Amino acid sequence: MSENKKTNTKSTDDFIEVNVEDIEDITEVETKEPGKVDPEKLEMDSMREEFRELISKNKSDKAIKKYMNLLKDLKQSNKEKNDYLNTAQMVQANFENYKKRAHKDQEWSSFQSKMKIVERFLSFYDDLDRSVTAFNDNSDVKSLKEALNLVFSNLKVTFESLNVKTIEPEKEIFNPQYHEAIHVVENEEVESNTIVDVVSIGYILEDVVIKPAKVVITRKSIENSESK
């Protein structure tokens, strides 16, 4: 019986020795930055040293117990890692779904805004359609003029309700923030860069220029400029 016990002890020692070497190979970690101590490497070095000491003192039962505890901790760590991974994947999936919903909401909101604007202009389309039909049936220029004036008046009211302002800068000094100069004329009677003609009015939506006014501006003649 003593021989069996001795044989079992030897087998256990061999088993522990092999796993210690495996752990020693696997857990060998180099510090990422020279001069800095890696806490994980220190912990693993201490653990290997503890295993060597237990084996050298023939305390295989303690070595096995410690080894099993390490395996248990490893399994628990892997389980937690998988739980974290599953949670991260779930959060990522929820975030992707949120982005899709937000995009759809944005598209719907944009469509509703366009629909409201179109609804405001449908009445003008109807007015113009009736005016053109009436003019074709009866070529009365006066009636057509009155109809067009009414449509234009209603359009201005709608622009005001949308907080759209016009830029009509005749006789003002040119300002590139609001105006676009498409032509320059020489004029000695007014200051240079004065707007003398508005080719196309501009528009401002809530203090943002959405279309600058196209204008003609003045400049002094070259001869007069050189004489001064």
Helices, strands, pairings?
Layout: H1 2-26, H2 39-56, H3 60-137, H4 141-161, E1 164-167, E2 179-186, E3 195-200, E4 202-205, E5 208-211, E6 213-219, H5 222-227
Parallel strand pairs: 2-6
Antiparallel strand pairs: 1-4, 3-6, 4-5
Overview of this protein structure:
The protein is an alpha+beta fold and 228 residues long. Among the domains are: 2-22 and 37-93; 165-228, Nucleotide Exchange Factor Grpe, Chain A, domain 2. 65% of the residues lie in helices and 14% in strands. It is built from 5 helices and 6 strands; from the N terminus they run H-H-H-H-E-E-E-E-E-E-H. The strands form 2 sheets. It has a 3-stranded antiparallel sheet. Strands 2-6-3 form a 3-stranded mixed sheet, with no helix packed on it. The chain starts with a helix and ends with a helix. Mean pLDDT is 76; it is low at 1-31.
Low-confidence stretches: 1-31
Order of helices and strands: HHHHEEEEEEH
Provide the gyration radius in Å. 44 Å
SSE-based structural type? alpha+beta
Determine the mean pLDDT. Answer: 76
- Widest β-sheet, arrangement of strands: 1-4-5
Q: Tally the beta strands.
A: 6
Portion in helices: 55-70%
For the record, give the distance between the C-alpha atoms at the N and C termini, rounded to a whole number: 126 Å
